[in-house]
Amino acid sequence: MANDPAPSPCLIGIVTVSDRASAGVYEDKSGPAIREVLTRWIASPWQEVVRVIADEQPLIEATLRELADTVGCALIVTTGGTGPAPRDVTPEATMAVCERLLPGFGEHMRAVSMRTVKTAILSRQIAGTRGASLIINLPGKPAAIEECLGAVFPAIPYCIDLIGGPRLQCTPDAPAAFRPQGA
After folding, report:
1. Residue 101 sits in a domain of what CATH number?
2. 54 in a structural domain
C-alpha cells in the first residue's frame, strides 16, 4: 500500500580488528572493502555500523556483543586478527560470544583461498551465530575480502533467515544465494 512505511534497513556490522588502524597509524582499507562488496551484492536496504578496534580479545568480544545484542545487526563481518600471530585473537573472541559455530564457513573460505594463496592455510577465520546475528571472520588483507566473502555469500541470506533475521535480497552481481524452494 502507498502508506506503508519503508522497511527498516538491515543493520550490518563491519568490524576492523587492527592495532595500527585503530591507533591511526594507517588507513583502514579492509572495512571499506567489505562495504564496497556488500553494496554491490545486497539489493535490500541496509545500513553499516562500523567499528575499528585494537587486537584485544575483551574489546573484540564486547564489540561483537554490542553489535549483536544492543544494535541488532543481522550480519557482523570482521576483518583482521585471524592469523597465527600472538595478537591475532579474533577467532577466540568470536568463539567466546557465539552460541553456535558454523565451521563450514571457515573451511570453505580457506579451501577457496588456498587455490591462489598457499599461506591461506594459516588463516583461522570462523563463523557462528549469536541470537539473530551471523558473525563471520574474514582475513585482514583487502585483496582477500571479496574472495572469502564470495565463497560463503551464497549461504548468508538463508542462514540469516533461519536465525530470525531480515530477508536479504541480492543483486544480479552477487554470488547466487541458495534458498530451498518455498523458503
Report:
1. 3.40.980.10
2. yes
Q: Which residues contact 182 (CB under 8 A, 6 or more apart)?
A: none
- Quick one: which H or E segment has residue 77? strand 75-79
Tell me the pairing of strands 127-130 and 133-138: antiparallel
Position 49 in a domain: yes
- The cell numbers describing 177, all together, are 544465494
Please answer whether residues 138 and 125 qualify as being in contact, where contact means their C-beta atoms are separated by less than 8 angstroms: yes
Domain count of the fold of the chain: 1
pTM: 0.95
| Chain segment 12-43, per-residue pLDDT in tens | 999 999 999 999 999 999 999 999 999 999 99
d(CA 104, CA 123): 14
Chain segment 84-102, per-residue pLDDT in tens: 999 999 999 999 999 999 9
For residue 51, the enclosing domain spans: 10-162
Instruction: Name the DSSP class of 6.
Output: P
The answer to whether 40 and 149 are in contact (CB under 8 A) is no
Question: Does residue 183 lie in a domain region?
Answer: no
